[in-house]
Amino acid sequence: MRRFVFTLISIFGFIIVAFGQNPEKTCFQTGRGWIPELDLRSDVAIVYGVNKSFPDRVQGWRDRGYGVHLMTGVAWGNYQEYLNGQFDGQKHMDEGQVQRNGKMILHNPTIPYMVPSKSYIEYLKSLVKVAIDEGVTAIHLEEPEFWNRGGYSDGFKREWQAYYNEPWQAQHESPEATYRSAKLKYHLYFRALQEIFLYAKNYSEEKGRRIKCYVPTHSLINYSAWNIVSPESSLADLPGMDGYIAQVWTGTSRTPVFYEGIEKERTFENAYLEYGSMVAMTKPTGRRVFFLTDPIEDNPDHSWEDYKYNYEATFTAQLLHPSVANYEVMPWPSRIFTGKYKKGNSDERQGIPGKYATELLVLINALNEMQESDQKLPGTQGIGVLLSDTMMFQRFPTHAGYEDPRLSNFYGMVLPLLKKGVPVQLVQMENLPQPDLLDGVKILIMSYANMKPLNKEYHEILAQWVHDGGCLIFAGSDADPFQSIREWWNENGKKKKTPAQHLLDALKFDPTNSRVEYVDYGKGKSVWIPQDPKEFVMKQGGSKVLLDFVKQGGIDIQEKNYFHLQRGAFDIAAVLDEGVSDQPYVISGPVIDLFDPDLPVLDEKRIEPNQRVFLYNLNRNSKKSPCILASGSRVYKEKRNVHSYTFVMKAPIATNGIARILLASEPDSVSIRGADGKDIKIQPEWDQKSKTLLIRYPNHPDGIQVDISW
Fold it and tell me: Which domain holds residue 599?
């Protein structure tokens, strides 16, 4: 009987998606119930946190036509009832993450980051149960984070004894203790998510349906840079794991990095790599991923101008990964549309500028129609860089002989290529057993200066790939103190061998060869550059070393200072600074500039270095007239007749709407009625050259009616 019920649910679920009523393609997260200022008209409202108001908040968004999910923190939250003993009669403050000085690591003054014990897992299950009972269709357990500097609490010491079956070791005492501490932290949040997701799947099935389970998480790159451990790619092995939200935004991507010896923010490049690492982690496993952007960031002390500039950088970066077309359009819309931030260089604070609000609404409505594809970002193809979850394991504390400022051993392998306009492909080491993972990769760059292999199987796969014709560039001095820890490559410390030496043995490579040159192996070849990759970015001119070896590997790099991707009618482009030239890049029109809240139609768009654009190209428009090409509202109830076009537009109140509409000829009449049924006076603007009509109007969540006739 249950199987029959699920079959019907599957059929009806297919019908809903097929007819586009609720595809759950776009979403946002909020701790608020529905209010007209936050009615973004995405497919899903992710309601944050389970408390007494949760049922009302869920119902409020559902009544407005949203699919409803739950999101709650898995590492932290307003969980005082657990900490204070109300949940199970036991106090649990000793399960907070504690640093070496004995101070607890806090998310805010009353909320600690947690060591996920068995009892804590049971508490989170109780919250998930409430959400399932309220009918949510998915749960999101966000940010499974264990700080590298943590690991000194009594709760963690108990978990160490249970996992390693030996007394706890302070992680600062040796590289081995650092690595093993991080490995345990990784395991603890894997276990937590595994058990909670299994419970969620089983309990929802008992209720006659099967919910989805997601993990909103920072990228592996950011967690490594910020000294946090999280299970990341290992979650793909969970049977109940449906996907991720890639939490990439200004706050993560503006983290300074080195290039050509200069340390500074490089938000666009960083965001491109962060999104790319999430693609590398998820695409081979078939897990779904949503890309997140944030029009502001957690730091409230920047200006609106700063937020806009960096938001456009991250927004562009996400769209340059065409295999993804699911989006969390923003987190916390209440802090965006009702918060106050600085204006310019003054300390004066104000609400969101009207034009920025309109731009945001135009962009999130464009995401509603963005489609995924298998196309490649134009540029030199076939260059991959290997990364591993173990990048997080050897970040903190530092030990004698090991310094990696700003994660430069990773950036040293990618920025020299990215800055030359090469769409470098990131490859997740833990996915190497996935079939055909390295198809299309001609040169693979890697190092063990910043990570270690979890499994010897990876070396067998890499050796076979080289033997079959691949080219492997290995960079590293083989001198960092994590080389000699008790792990599989040195038989748990009984025989001294570094992971690099184990790999080179598999490649039949003689490491005593002092000449830095390629060595043949089967149909392929490999080279060992005896420098840590950080030298390629922390020294001026250092990138040339890596680029020369890439060229010797058989790839002729097409150097350019831009990226330009066409996705349907959309043009997404970025021009790089610090790159090949300072020349602008020009896209021919007519195009609608979607980063301009006035939606102008331009004959061409000129892009200067360190600028990005998002355009709607009228030459590639596939929509039939009459149609809406771009708008700051979501469109409903479209009706087309021989001489008329009508529709309803919905968006948050207290914002200004705008729409550019393609028509066969200039209209005779354009009228707009507000949600109250009263006419709204407007001044429509007709552009004869593009045959488009521009209208401006006040938005309303109940909808405004637009009637056009000709």
Answer: 562-620
Instruction: Output the six-digit token pair for 355.
Output: 């034009």
Tell me which residue has tokens 């004066």. 348
d(CA 202, CA 195): 11
Q: Is the pLDDT of residue 25 over 80?
A: yes
Decide: 43 and 32 in contact? Cβ < 8 Å.
no
Q: What is the pTM of this model?
A: 0.96
Strand 443-446 vs strand 471-475: parallel, antiparallel, or unpaired?
parallel
List of residues 6+ apart from 688 with CB closer than 8 A: 666
Q: What kind and span of H or E run contains 660?
A: strand 656-662
**Per the structure block, which two tokens stand in for 517?**
């040159």
The per-residue pLDDT for range 501-535, each reduced to its tens digit, is: 999 999 998 877 767 999 999 999 999 999 999 99
Total tally of structural domains belonging to the chain: 4
Q: Given 603, 620, 637, which residue is the final one in a domain? A: 620
The residue whose two tokens read 């492909």 is 425
**Quick one: 615 and 659 in the same domain?**
no
Q: How far is CA 98 from the centre of its chain?
A: 28
Three-state SS for 304-340 is: HHHHHHHHHHHHHHHHCCCCCCCEEEEECHHHHHCCC
Burial (Cβ within 10 Å: 0-12, 13-18, ≥19) of residue 631: buried
pLDDT of residue 493: 77
Q: What are phi and psi of 606, to 5 degrees?
A: -100, 125
User: What would the two tokens of residue 576 be?
Assistant: 């790089």
E strand residue ranges, 121-210: 138-142, 146-147
- Give the pair of three-digit tokens for residue 257: 């990095």
The answer to whether position 179 is within a domain reads no
Cα–Cα nearest to 184, from 410, 192, 427: 192
Whether the CB-CB separation of 580 and 631 falls below 8 Å is answered with no
Name, in order, each residue with C-beta under 8 angstroms of 621's C-beta and a sequence gap of 6 or more. Answer: 569, 629, 662
What are the structure tokens assigned to 134, written together? Answer: 């309220």
CA distance readout (Å), 417 to 476, 531, 548:
18, 17, 11
- pLDDT band of 356, cuts 50, 70, 90: very high
Alpha helices in 496-538 (DSSP H): 499-506, 535-538
Strand locations in 509-610 (E): 519-521, 524-529, 562-567, 570-575, 585-593, 601-607
* CB-based contact 632:661 (threshold 8 Å): no
Q: How far apart are the first and last CA of the chain?
A: 57
Are 549 and 473 in contact by the 8 Å Cβ rule? The answer is: yes
Statement to judge: residues 613 and 540 lie in one domain: no
Residue 135 covered by a domain: no
Is the bond into 590 cis (omega within 30 degrees of 0)?
A: yes
Residue 221 Cα distances to 346, 427, 605, angstroms: 34, 12, 33
Please name the residues in contact with 109: beta carbons below 8 A apart, sequence gap of 6 or more.
Answer: none
